[in-house]
Amino acid sequence: MDKKHIIKYWQDFFADLFIGTFKSLFLFAFAGFFLGVLTTFLLKEISVQPENWQTWLEVSVLLIALAWYGTFGIVHGLTAGLLRTVGKKLCEMVGGLHDLLDILVRGVLSNYSKFNKHVPKKELADKFDQLGKKFLEDLKLKSGFLNQVKSLIFRVVLKVLKFLFLDDVMVELNKKPSDQLSRADIESAVRRVGVEFVISTITDNILLLHVLNGFLLALTFGLPFFLFWTF
């Protein structure tokens, strides 16, 4: 598959990412907002002491807290929903991942008329990053929260493929007795690398993103409590 078709594949993948998942995203967003409302109530009961406050001040503080918690609750809920959706769609990515790895590896090695196995790994990594960045630009993901999440997901994919290239693919290439490698050697090495490992690794990274999202949730939801406790 050539680069044009691979770009089209990933554009379609991200375009279809939310088809059939609107209900799931809505439920996650609603759950996040409900959590925000609940936390606002807890903030009022635990931290806000309105004995000497005027009514307008108490109402203003609670409205600001509700806006804070409601907004971040929806953001964290949508993020969790998106990560869950991507995790479910990973099985559909097998062919696209293999083709993407193949074209990126060929792109890196095309910089060398006669590729030598002793090329420094850092040099290969830099060229891979450059190609990955160009590929991300070619996807033409527009600005906006959802597209930023899509961009983050694709960056995770590229990161995993880079490590796969530098380790597994290069190990396969280094098994060749000759220092000079043919195009057939390169394609054979890519085919022998299983994309199941890629999916497993990406799943692990998605789990880490879930943990990060949970940490940021605790941070954003805990900040008002900390401020009231401090002041």
Number of individual domains: 1
Poorly predicted runs: none
> What best-fitting shape do the alpha-carbon axes yield?
elongated
Average pLDDT taken over every residue: 80
Run of helices and strands: HHHHHHHH
Structural class: mainly alpha
N-C termini distance:
61 Å
The amount of beta strand, in percent, is under 5%
The number of helices is 8
The biggest sheet amounts to: none
Q: What is the rounded Rg? A: 24 Å
Question: How would you characterize this protein structure?
Answer:
The protein is mostly helical. The protein has one domain. It has helices at residues 3-15, 22-46, 55-89, 94-109, 121-139, 145-174, 183-192, 195-230. α6 packs across α8. The N and C termini lie far apart (61 Å). The mean pLDDT is 80.
Describe, in short, the structure shown.
The chain has helices at residues 3-15, 22-46, 55-89, 94-109, 121-139, 145-174, 183-192, 195-230.
Topology:
Layout: H1 3-15, H2 22-46, H3 55-89, H4 94-109, H5 121-139, H6 145-174, H7 183-192, H8 195-230
Helix pairs in contact: 1-4, 2-3, 3-8, 4-5, 4-7, 4-8, 5-6, 6-7, 6-8
Which key features would you list for this structure?
mainly alpha, 231 residues, single chain
